[in-house]
Each structure stands twice: as structure tokens, then as C-alpha cells.
Design brief:
It is built from 24 helices and 16 strands. With about 625 residues, the protein is α/β, with parallel strands linked by helices. It is globular, with a radius of gyration of 24 Å. It binds FE(4)-NI(1)-S(4) cluster and iron/sulfur cluster.
């Protein structure tokens, strides 16, 4: 086994990683090695630097200090740190949602040239959910009114955010009872920061209950608004074919990559690369055309809607440049390693940051606003195309050919594939053809062999007739492994194989980006409502096998609080508090009917989840 096979299960990663080392490029894997051994206190969650009487740490062996300078013990410190993680994740998704809200509002005011309403039906449907009567209003006026109604969800005018209306009644009663129903998107994040300041909330249970409320303000607030508005503005995804891996880069084309999370910038880049003048310029520079591909969740957004291929997930982002074939990477925000600029120094790739809130070393900043986005997109694409002349053709190395990936499974598309309602899915679950469904979500983390957790778990689940829904970086892993095409039904158990064959869908469905986990909880709510039970009674689960991001912690929390058992592949920093660990891995069950498990081995994780789903089936009296 070559050294590189220890880092990733993917050929493209192994081969470019080898070249990266030959070229003297440092990657996340190298930097992880230099960080080891990582701080044990921080791993356990028992270090605190919330105030400058500290930093403090608790001795996990009970011999050294058991309290910080302020008197906080391990329970308080671990709970506060975890709550702050969740606040950051919620803030990230919700601020992304807010940017879309701003675009919608500006569309309504004619201040966002180039942006339009691509799904007016959905605009009308969502407006109704917000109590805005669409009758007699044109799209623009409606955009304005819906935007204003959604802005109230971010503030404190309401006592609960609007999409809570999608949640089964029993669940909301439970949330009300434990006072975790989210009131405002920003309010809950702000309150987490307040509660975790020195001398505010010092009860680990109440800190964590508020963290739950904060996570729900993301899942049913910021993220859900982000997803629904992206559909309204850029179109609701429909199933179709695309491609994944580094082989989507084209040797004879200008290659432009978009990276980050928000579709606001990348949709404009998508328009610019199709412009005739740009194509002409590309030809003058000796390229056959301009090839656009995605990375991370910006890539997921474009793949879902426009079937634009994906060059890679999180750990591939540095390696794309090692191909020597990338003219430009345009980033928005989140999950963009600040090392990209350093890697670019070794190649001809030009890097552009586009958001005033996300700037990076060795990257040119070209600020995008709803007003100037079209102009700026053309400017960057022109520069990228001109940059083709600087490519050193002798250094180009595209090591693989692309793999097909089916995409576009929005809730609407799933319902349509089923013939207009969720009933056929419910029938298949009741009959035991499909045993249950699992959202497999999240990142890459160099602590785990890249994509091994995702692929191992998905294979294990589909073999047991469990339908998988993927978001985020999992999509690329599953795609590369050939799991997201209808032919992958051959790897599924007999029941799931039959259903996939009937509907011509893969056993593992790409439902979108990180914010699109809101699609998964929306389906869970719709299933529960259709059957007339609470979500925790359903044969569902969630997993984040290779998570690294605070956002993933937030997603895990809102999945759990929705009643969905959640398995993590990487240990969160909580082991320093027995009480918090006990609560997370079992105590929460008594409150929300779901809790967490940590299992790095994907085969064991598939077993755990299958057992859980079988137990839920048994309790519902369904065949096993
Ligand atoms: Fe980021 Fe969303 Fe994680 Fe990938 S999966 S590393 S958060 S890009 Ni959401
Ligand atoms: Fe130390 Fe308490 Fe300050 Fe944390 S909040 S750094 S435990 S004194």
C-alpha cells in the first residue's frame, strides 16, 4: 500500500497528493501531522478561554485543578464550549440564508440586475406559508413582501419562527414543554453567546437545552430559509445526470472552479461562462471553451440545479490546483482553507474572494453585491480566460476520468418521482421493501481516511434496504464510488433494488448542500404528518461520518432534537464531562426520543443504524 492510500480511498486524491509532495506543496494532511499530538484538554473540551481570568483547564484525571478561575467545573466548561460551536454553525447557515433574503428583497426593489424569480410557483407556495396572500400580487411585489415577512423570522417580533408550522404537532408540544422552540433566527445565536459569557448560565443541562433551541433556529430557520429562497431565485432542482472527481477538469478548456456555499456568486459565474464573447476570447487564447466545475457546497448548489460537475469535496480543494489545469478558483464563504493562496503560489491559478465577510491571504478580492454581481462575474471570467495563456501545458496532470452522478433530488422532485405524493414511499416502508431512510451528511476530516467513512456507511445501509439521502461533501464521496446512479441498485438489498428499478433512481439520493439538510428534516416532518406519528417513531437516522465543521455539530443537534438518532464518526470535544457525555449519548433520549452515538467504523455504524431502524419498525408493528 502506498503512503497515499492511507490518506484517501480516492484515486484522484492519492495521485495528486503524490504530485503535490513532488511539487513541494503542503496539504491539510501534512499540517495535521505537524499538529500532532493535538491538545488533550481541548480534545476533551475541558479548556476554556472565554475570559481573560483564564485560559483555564480542568485536569481530567482528577488530580490537578477541577475548576477554572471563575469556579466553572468540567460540566459547565464542556457545555459552554459545545453550545458555542453550535452557535457558530447556526450563525454560518443563517447568515448565508440572510444573504439570499437580501437578494430576494432587492429583486423586489429592482436592485439586483441579473437575478430573477426562477420558480414563481414556489414563491407563491412559500408566501402562503408566511401568511402573505399572493393573489393579485406580481412576482416582484410578492418577493418584497415575502422577504419582509422572513426578515421578521430573524428578529424578535415573533414568538416562533414560521417553518415550525411544518413540524408535527406532537413534536412542537414537546419543544414547547422543554422551552426549546426557536423564536428568532438571530435571537437564539445571540442568546447562546450571552448565556455562555462568564457568570450567566452555569447549569450544563440548561446550557445544552438552549443549544438545542439554537440549532433548531438553524434547521427550521436560517437553513430552511436559505434552501427555499435558493429554489425560488435559482430554480427548484430536478433530477438529472452530472459528473464528479478531478477528471471533470478539461485539458483543452479554461477551467474555472467555484467554491464555498452560497449560490449567489456562482450562479452569475455560470451565466458569464456561457457568454458568446467569453467563448470567443477563450478560443483566441487557444482553449476549446470554458469549463465550470464546483467544489464543496457551492458545487452542490450548482450541480443540483444546473448539473454542473463537481471537481471534489473538502479535502480535494487544495489538490485541484496540483493538476496545473485550473485557471481560477472563485470562493464565497465557509470551508475555504486559508492555505489555498499558498498552494496557488506554485501554479498559475488565480484566486478570487467575493464576499466582504470572507477574505483570504494571497487572494484577490473582487467584492460582489446583488447590484454589481453580473459585472463582477464577467470581469473575473474574462481574467480567468486570459490566464489560460499562463498555463504550463507540460505540467498539466488530470489523473482520472469522471464518474457519473445523478443529482437534483429536492423534496419536490422526490414527490414528483413518486407520482405526486409521499404515499408510495410510505407504502414501501410499511411493506418493508424499504426498511427506513438515513441522511448521511457532512464533511471530510483528515483524521479519517478521505471518503472511507461515507462510502463504507452508505454501502452498508443500502445493502440492508435502507434508502440514503446525501448532502454536502458526502455527495462527492458517494458519487465517486458509483453509488449515486440508478445502476447502483445492484448494491442495494432486494427491496430497495426493486423500488430503485421501478423509479429509475439511485439507492443513495443527492439532496443538496449543507443548508439543504433542511430538505431532509422537511421530508421527515412530511412523513410523520402523513402517517400521523411524531418523527421519533419513524425508522429514520442521520450520520456525519467525517464531520469537521461547527455547522455539522449544529445539524447533528437539530436532527437529534427533531427525533432522529444521529451517529457521528468523529468524537465531539465532550468526553471531559461525564455528565454531558451521558446526556448526549443517552439522557437526551428521554427528552427528544433520540440521542447521539459515536462510531468511527463505518461497518459498525451501519450495524448500529440498522438495529435502530429495526427497533423503530418493530415498535410501529411493521414487518422486519
Ligand atoms: Fe464544508 Fe458544505 Fe462540511 Fe463540506 S460538508 S466540509 S461543512 S462543504 Ni456540509
Ligand atoms: Fe477560566 Fe472561567 Fe474565564 Fe473560562 S470563564 S477562562 S473557566 S475564568
Amino acid at each position: 500500500m502506498s503512503e497515499y492510500e492511507e490518506y484517501s480511498i480516492c484515486k484522484d486524491a492519492q495521485l495528486t497528493l503524490k504530485k503535490a509532495h513532488e511539487d513541494g506543496v503542503e496539504t491539510a494532511w501534512d499540517r495535521l501531522k505537524k499538529q500532532e499530538p493535538q491538545c488533550g484538554y481541548c480534545e476533551l473540551g475541558v479548556s476554556c478561554r472565554i475570559c481573560v481570568m483564564g485560559p483555564c483547564r480542568i485536569d481530567p484525571f482528577g488530580e490537578g485543578p477541577q475548576r477554572g478561575v471563575c469556579g466553572a467545573d468540567a460540566d459547565i466548561i464542556v457545555a459552554r464550549n459545545l453550545a458555542r460551536m453550535i452557535a457558530s454553525g447556526a450563525a454560518s447557515h443563517s447568515d448565508h440564508g440572510r444573504d439570499l433574503l437580501e437578494v430576494l428583497h432587492k429583486i423586489g426593489h429592482d436592485k439586483a440586475p441579473g437575478y430573477t424569480i426562477k420558480d414563481p410557483d414556489k414563491l407563491r407556495r412559500i408566501a402562503k406559508e408566511y401568511g402573505v396572500d399572493p393573489a393579485n400580487l406580481d412576482d416582484k411585489e410578492l418577493a418584497k413582501r415575502l422577504a419582509e415577512a422572513m426578515m421578521e423570522d430573524y428578529g424578535m417580533k415573533k414568538d416562533r419562527i414560521t417553518f415550525i408550522n411544518r413540524v408535527p404537532k406532537q413534536r412542537v408540544e414537546l419543544w414547547d414543554k422543554f422551552r426549546v422552540t426557536p423564536r428568532g433566527v438571530d435571537r437564539e445565536t445571540s442568546e447562546t453567546m450571552h448565556r455562555t459569557h462568564m457568570g450567566v448560565d452555569n447549569n450544563y443541562v440548561s446550557i445544552l437545552l438552549h443549544a438545542v433551541r439554537n440549532s433548531l433556529s438553524d434547521g427550521y430557520g436560517g437553513s430552511m430559509i436559505g434552501t427555499e429562497l435558493s429554489d425560488i431565485i435559482f430554480g427548484t432542482p430536478k433530477p438529472g445526470m452530472s459528473e464528479v472527481n478531478l477528471g471533470v477538469l478539461k485539458e483543452d478548456h479554461v477551467n474555472i472552479l467555484v467554491h464555498g456555499h452560497s449560490p449567489i456568486v456562482s450562479e452569475m459565474i455560470g451565466l458569464a461562462v456561457e457568454d458568446k464573447g467569453m467563448l470567443q476570447l477563450a478560443k483566441e487564447k487557444g482553449a476549446k471553451g470554458i469549463n465550470l466545475a464546483g467544489l464543496c457546497c457551492t458545487g452542490n448548489e450548482l450541480m443540483m440545479r444546473k448539473k454542473i460537475p463537481m471537481a471534489g469535496n473538502h479535502l480535494m480543494t487544495e489538490l485541484t490546483m496540483v493538476t496545473g489545469a485550473v485557471e481560477a478558483i472563485i470562493v464565497d464563504y465557509q470551508c475555504i482553507m486559508p492555505s489555498l493562496g499558498q498552494v496557488a503560489q506554485c501554479y498559475h491559478t488565480k484566486l478570487y474572494s467575493t464576499s466582504d465577510k470572507a477574505k483570504f491571504p494571497n487572494m484577490e478580492h473582487v467584492e460582489f453585491t446583488p447590484e454589481n454581481a453580473r459585472e463582477q462575474a464577467f470581469r473575473i471570467v474574462r481574467e480567468a480566460t486570459e490566464n489560460f495563456s499562463r498555463r504550463d501545458r507540460s505540467k498539466v496532470y488530470i489523473p482520472v476520468t469522471p464518474v457519473k452522478n445523478m443529482t437534483g433530488f429536492s423534496v419536490e422532485a422526490i414527490v414528483e418521482a413518486l407520482g405526486g405524493s409521499l404515499d408510495p414511499l410510505i407504502d414501501a416502508i410499511k411493506a418493508g421493501k424499504i426498511k427506513g431512510a438515513v441522511g448521511v451528511v457532512g464533511c471530510n476530516n483528515p483524521k479519517i481516511k478521505q471518503d472511507s467513512g461515507h462510502v463504507g456507511l452508505i454501502k452498508g445501509l443500502i445493502a440492508n434496504d435502507i434508502l440514503v439521502l446525501t448532502t454536502g461533501c458526502v455527495n462527492v464521496a458517494a458519487g465517486k464510488a458509483g453509488l449515486q446512479v440508478p445502476e447502483a441498485k445492484e448494491l442495494a438489498g432486494p427491496g430497495l433494488r426493486e423500488i430503485c428499478g421501478l423509479l429509475n433512481i439511485p439507492p443513495s439520493l443527492h439532496v443538496g448542500s449543507c443548508v439543504d439538510n433542511s430538505r431532509i428534516v422537511a421530508i421527515a416532518c412530511a412523513l410523520a404528518n402523513a402517517i400521523g406519528v411524531d418523527i421519533d417513531k419513524l425508522p429514520l437516522a442521520a450520520a456525519a461520518p467525517e464531520w469537521y465543521s461547527e455547522k455539522a455539530a449544529t445539524i447533528a443537534f437539530y436532527a437529534m432534537a427533531s427525533g432522529i438518532f444521529t451517529v457521528l464518526g468523529v468524537m465531539p470535544p465532550i468526553l471531559g464531562s461525564k455528565n454531558v457525555t451521558q446526556l448526549a449519548t443517552s439522557g437526551l433520549n428521554d427528552v427528544f426520543g433520540a440521542c447521539f452515538a459515536v462510531e468511527p467504523d463505518p461497518v459498525k455504524a451501519a450495524g448500529l443504524i440498522t438495529n435502530h431502524i429495526m427497533e423503530k419498525r418493530k415498535a410501529l408493528g411493521l414487518p422486519l
